[in-house]
Design a protein that fits this description.
six-stranded parallel sheet; alpha/beta; three-stranded parallel sheet; 15 helices
Amino acid sequence: MISRAALFILLCSLGFCASPTADRNVNAKAAQEPNPKTDAPIYPAPLKNMIGQMIVVGFEGINAADDRVKRVAAQIKNGSVGGVIIYARNVGDPVTFERLTRSLHYSISDNPPLWIMIDQEGGKVQRLNSQKGFSDYPSAKKIGKGTLNAAFSVYRDLACELRGYGINFNLAPTVDLDRGEGVIAADERAFSADARKTTGFATQFVNAHDSCGVLTAIKHFPGHGSASGDPHIESADATAAYAAEELTPFKALIDAKKARAVMVSHIIDRDVDNAPATLSKTHIDRLRALGFDGAVIGDDLQMGAIALNYDLNETIVKAINAGDNILLFSNMFAYDPEIPEKAQIIVKKAIASGEIDPQKIIDSYNRVIALKQRRQ
């Protein structure tokens, strides 16, 4: 009679016996292989909070006790909003303003740090100014006529003033070229018509803000200098006048690792895409091809160039699918305090219907958090 030990050896030699280790390996492999019919995406955080980190909103009110301010503070606390943007309507005297920003920062609860953003370029675009008790700064055009050292000194004062009042993200510098007749040139928002000079002064702007712990975003990709239309009001078509050199400052700053974030404009260049750059995957893919792997900010999605041509649902879905990581709603043109809640509904429905790939939300969230970890 064959013994049990001999029978075991015989069965193993014939392949009928597998080791416990082999079983574990097979089971582990099966567990790692996704089943597209049943597997849900693995989110690094609750979906609501991930969408919320993509949302930046404007609001009304200058005082922390204002009900409109309390509402946005509650949206920050519950994870529906990852950032707010300051306009002149939010700026009272320095003491009141500092109390306002402090109250918003204190609303964070367990969420990642809050971005308090502003457009503080100097010249015509400065929300904090001497009329309200703050400092005034020269326009980019005036700065561009001086030296790089002088530019750094001015922008360091500007950045440290922002930081002192609780602002941690300046949506600047403008690296559009002065093309002579566009709205950017008319408002003296460009440093120069020369791409190399523009890059040099923009670098000083970024370095100065870095030294004070304030984030920056170079704008307005792919270059707004050729557009004669004003996207705040209407579509801005730059097709006929757009020049390839307008990409040069963006490429140079990306290569030099000075692009903390990039804001994409609403201009239309029909040689690339018929859609505004903000809603164009082709345009944003071109930005990625330049080597930029950080957070992409869409310019205000309530401007006329967008709002007159797309409804809110289309805007949000197209922006996310195009590759925008941060969705900015100024609430300047049509005030809607429920934008964060509406955005949540739209994005969740689009994910459920397959219009938005959940990976888009995951990628955006990861880029936002990486940027927030850089500067808090």
